[in-house]
Structure formats: structure tokens, C-alpha cells
Design goal:
Signal peptide: 1-21
InterPro entries: Ribosomal_uS2_CS
Number of strands: 27
Structural class: alpha+beta
Keywords: Membrane, Signal, Transmembrane, Transmembrane helix
Shape: elongated
Radius of gyration: 29 Å
GO biological process, one term: translation
Transmembrane segments: 141-164, 184-205
């Protein structure tokens, strides 16, 4: 019964998710021309709807004007409306707020323009414009409108009946039987016509509501299986559901699986976390076997139920997290002799990490590491340590933009020299204890760099969509060759390529030992945060627990 209840809870959680589970907001940290900026965007959950855009500028000079506008992948800049001017905050220096309308669903972005004494800066932040909710009319408003409609119908029937009956009388004349009959007939006919009009209006309303339902975002479904005999994990996307999703007029092209593009050099970032304890963590990069099947070498996972999160990005810039659960039976790997025949499936950037169970400070597995806390260091697998530079006396509040700052020190306690890991100084994964909130973060924010590049390429092309889209099968083959070429590169050469245009990579030539991640926690509760970086050519992992108020 407990297992069934857990499965149902997970299903209900996953059925309501989209890209970045339970965390719809988008954060960006970088530059807009000469201005350092942090941008926080809360997209609407109903389209058409307004996104809330908040821009924080460092050392903002006087005379600045900040504006924002939506840009849609389907039409590029030619279909872009004029920008809306942001309002400076009266209480917070350097903060600007603006609401931006999204009128169409799909891969979109918000272009933020900063114009001031230092010149003009422009930055594009990807945003997935999705309808994920339905709005119900408040009961009080509904009854009020019904009463007004009834009053108007009675008034119209009375007016029309009087116009064909009483209005025919001269002053002082008495009502005749003929005029009474005309008044009754006029009232009945007008009532029938008004009822037909109202019925037609209701049918139109219901039709629009059904049409809107067809545009509601429906998360893809997948099945995750493990073959312990050869040590592989297979992630298979539901093809029947793909056909159903493809019937949507606006989302068919946007979500084609053949149009997947690499993000940080990988077609898919797949995360496994043991549910409940959150004490087992794996970051894998499956390779594509066909358009809906992805295969990866898998570590020897201990028994339990696992959350599965798979991040993908498409040519349209549309990012999506596909979720699943995986049951690993007791002794699954112990009873299977692992063979080396699938060694070619191993990705050099895959990682596996274990730590203490959530809510416990006891280590229950050999080789497990203790999670850090705000202000408390976590020991890393190479002898170095990571410290979360967060005052434990100042709890983080939900729905408020915060910056998560971490410092890495070498075994001697000196600042560590970090190296790029998949083109970034660090990666972070944040997960709520019940799995309802998941996000894959970078120092530049929560947006996808591949999505940003896809949208910028589309804008630069500036021609009709039919001329822009390549043949799906040809495109998929070329991407597979490109990804294979990247994986075959030496690590230094690969990271140099992936570092291109990465805004978190410093160019001052100094060694950097601190990393930061801008993020807005969407809900209060208990979270675990995994930090991944690279030092001396090796991937280093750490984890931290946090309680968000």
C-alpha cells in the first residue's frame, strides 16, 4: 500500500510538470552590453498572459532606461511587438520591473534592452511560453453575471413585447385583444431568439475552452529500464504519445525529437536520485540509439525507487524535462556479472555520488560523503572542501531571488583552482525532498545556453520558418556526428570549444575558486543542492541541505 501511494504521488507530481520541474521561473546572470545584470522572469501559466520581468543592474547610473519585449522563435524579430518600458523601483536601487505580454505558445524569449550613459546593451533570455493551467470564474462573479443576464433578457423581452403591442396605442386608447396577442407573440418570439443567441454564445465559449485544452502543455512520458547484465540504462520515450503531441497545431514542429540539439555538448542530461533519502545521485549523458531511445552506461545503483529527470533542448530553443521513476530491485547488480562490452557507451563527463540520507547526519553507505549546510563545509572526494557562503541565521525565503555562493578550497585549505566542466565553471542540481521541484542550474542562471543560441540563430536568419528548418532525419544524423566528434576530443580542447560565449567564464586570467548560482526557490520546504565542478582534471561533487522558509 505504501509503495502504491508513493507511486500515485509521484505520478500526480509529474503530470503537472514541464521544463524544470515545479520551477517555472527563469534567471539570467551576465551582461547586457556594458551593464552587469541579473534578470528574473516569471512566465505566465496561461497564454495569452503576462510575464513578470525584474531586472537588477549593478551600480546602475542615473538616466537609464530598461525595456523588454517578447520574441517568438516561429516568426523571429519581424513579428516582434514594440518594447515595454520598465519602471524603476522606488525602494531598491538598480531594480526595474515590467510586465510583458505573451500571445502565442511555444519556444520564445524576452529581449531586455538597457540604454544609458555607457551605451546600449541587449540580452536575450529564453522563456518557454506554455499554457499549463486553466482559470475558473469566481463563483460570486458568475452568479452576478447570471443575474445581470437574466435582467437584460427580461428587459429585452419586455421592450420588444411593448414595441409591437402597447406602442401601437394612441394616447387614451384602450388595449385591444389583437394588441394583447401581438405583445404576447412578440415577447415569446424575442425570448426564443434571445435563448438561441445565448445558446450559440455558450457553444462558442465551450468550443474555445476545448480549443484551449488542446494547447495545454502535456509532458512527454518515458520508460526507464536497467539491464544489470551489461550495465546499461535505456530511456525510451513514448512514441504513441509523441503522435498525439504532434497533432497540436503550434507544438508539432517545436517538439520534434529529431530536432534535439546538444546543450554543453550533450544531447541529454539525465539525473537519477534515490527518492526519499536523496542519498544516491547520478548525472549521466545517454547517447541516442534512435530518435526516441537513449542508452547510457549506469553505475551499480543500490536498491530503491529513483526519480529520473532528463533534460533536452530542440532546434526551436524549446527546452523540456522528461520525468520518470525507476525501481531498482534488491541485489539487482549483485546477481548480474557486469561485462565490458558496453564500455563505449560510457561518457567521460558522467558522475556518480553518494551521501548521507536526507534528514540524517549518519553515513549509511561505504564511500558516502556528508552533506554540507549553510556555513558548514562539505568534504569532496579529492580531499578538497566546499563551503556554502550562506549565513545560517538568515534563512532563504521562497519566491525571492537569491544568489547561492560556494567556495572551493584545496586539501591545504587554500583557494582551489577550478577548471571548466562541460564548458562551465560549475553545475548545480536542486531537488525538493518530495521530487516536486527540480532544476539544473549554472552560474549564468537557469536558462539553457543551447536554447539561447537556437533563438539567436533563428533571429539572425530572419527568413520564413519553412526555409530555416532542415530535413529532420538529416539534421539528426549531422548532430549525432557533431556530438561524437566533441566526445572524442581531448578534455582541454572539448572544454575550450564548449566555453565559447559562456558568460560565467572569466577572461582576466586569474584562478577562480568561487561559484554562484542565481535562483528563486518556488516553494518552502527541504531541499538538497548538488554542486559539480572540476579540479586537476577530475570531476568533484558536493551536496548541501537547505530548508527554505
Amino acid at each position: 500500500m505504501k509503495k502504491l501511494t508513493t507511486s500515485l504521488i509521484l505520478l500526480l507530481i509529474f503530470l503537472t510538470t514541464s521544463a524544470h520541474v515545479g520551477s517555472p521561473g527563469v534567471t539570467f546572470e551576465g551582461t547586457a552590453g556594458p551593464y552587469k545584470a541579473i534578470i528574473n522572469i516569471t512566465p505566465p501559466d496561461v497564454i495569452p498572459g503576462t510575464a513578470t520581468v525584474t531586472v537588477y543592474l549593478e551600480d546602475a547610473p542615473k538616466g537609464l532606461q530598461v525595456s523588454a519585449r517578447p520574441i517568438y522563435w516561429t516568426v523571429g524579430k519581424d513579428g516582434t511587438p514594440s518594447a515595454d518600458i520598465a519602471t524603476p523601483s522606488a525602494t531598491e536601487q538598480g531594480r526595474y520591473d515590467v510586465k510583458v505580454w505573451f500571445m502565442s505558445i511555444g519556444a520564445s524569449s524576452i529581449e531586455v534592452i538597457v540604454d544609458g550613459p555607457k551605451g546600449k546593451g541587449v540580452v536575450l533570455v529564453p522563456v518557454m511560453a506554455l499554457s499549463t493551467a486553466k482559470r475558473s470564474m469566481p463563483a460570486g462573479l458568475g452568479w452576478g453575471l447570471l443575474a445581470m443576464a437574466a435582467f437584460l433578457v427580461i428587459l429585452m423581452v419586455t421592450i420588444i413585447g411593448s414595441s409591437v403591442g402597447d406602442s401601437q396605442l394612441n394616447p387614451g386608447d384602450e388595449m385591444t385583444q389583437r394588441l394583447r396577442r401581438r405583445r404576447v407573440i412578440g415577447s415569446v418570439v424575442s425570448l426564443v431568439l434571445l435563448v438561441l443567441i445565448l445558446w450559440g454564445g455558450k457553444n462558442w465559449w465551450d468550443s474555445e475552452a476545448e480549443d484551449y485544452k488542446s494547447y495545454l502543455f502535456k509532458p512527454m512520458q518515458a520508460t526507464t529500464t536497467v539491464d544489470a547484465g551489461n550495465g546499461t540504462l535505456t530511456f525510451s520515450i513514448d512514441t504513441a504519445q509523441l503522435k498525439y503531441l504532434g497533432r497540436g497545431r503550434r507544438m508539432g514542429t517545436t517538439r520534434k525529437m529529431n530536432y534535439i540539439v546538444p546543450d554543453h555538448g550533450k544531447l541529454m542530461h539525465l539525473f537519477l536520485v534515490r527518492a526519499g533519502d536523496l542519498d544516491v545521485f547520478a548525472h549521466l549523458h545517454p547517447r541516442r540509439a534512435d530518435s526516441v531511445t537513449f542508452i547510457s552506461k549506469v553505475p551499480k545503483l543500490p536498491a530503491g525507487k529513483y526519480f529520473v529527470y532528463a533534460d533536452i533542448t530542440r532546434l526551436s530553443g524549446f527546452t523540456e524535462t522528461i520525468v520518470d521513476t525507476l525501481d531498482v530491485k534488491e541485489n539487482l547488480f549483485r546477481n548480474a556479472a557486469l561485462e565490458a562490452k558496453t564500455e563505449t557507451l560510457a561518457d567521460p563527463d558522467d558522475t556518480y555520488y553518494t551521501n548521507n540520507p536526507m534528514g540524517s547526519r549518519a553515513l549509511t553507505r561505504p564511500g558516502a560523503a556528508m552533506c554540507g549546510l549553510p556555513g558548514v563545509a562539505a568534504q569532496l572526494n579529492d580531499g578538497s572542501s566546499a563551503i556554502w557562503l550562506q549565513d545560517p541565521k538568515k534563512p532563504i525565503q521562497a519566491n525571492e531571488l537569491t544568489t547561492l555562493n560556494f567556495e572551493i578550497k584545496d586539501p591545504e585549505g587554500k583557494p582551489a583552482v577550478l577548471e571548466p566542466y562541460m564548458g562551465m565553471m560549475a553545475h548545480a542540481v536542486i531537488l525538493k525532498d518530495d521530487g516536486s521541484v527540480y532544476i539544473h542550474l549554472h552560474p549564468a542562471g537557469s536558462y539553457s545556453m543551447a536554447s539561447q543560441k537556437a533563438l539567436l540563430d533563428r533571429i539572425a536568419f530572419n527568413k520564413p520558418l519553412d526555409e530555416y528548418l532542415p530535413k529532420p532525419s538529416v539534421f539528426a544524423d549531422s548532430i549525432d556526428h557533431f556530438v561524437a566528434k566533441i566526445n572524442d576530443m581531448p578534455a582541454a580542447e572539448r572544454d575550450k570549444l564548449l566555453m565559447t560565449n559562456m558568460s560565467d567564464m572569466k577572461s582576466d586570467g586569474k584562478a577562480h575558486h568561487q561559484v554562484s548560482f542565481p535562483y528563486t526557490f518556488p516553494q518552502p520546504g527541504k531541499y538538497r543542492i548538488w554542486i559539480q565542478a572540476k579540479r586537476n582534471g577530475n570531476i568533484i561533487n558536493s551536496a548541501f541541505d537547505a530548508e527554505i522558509k
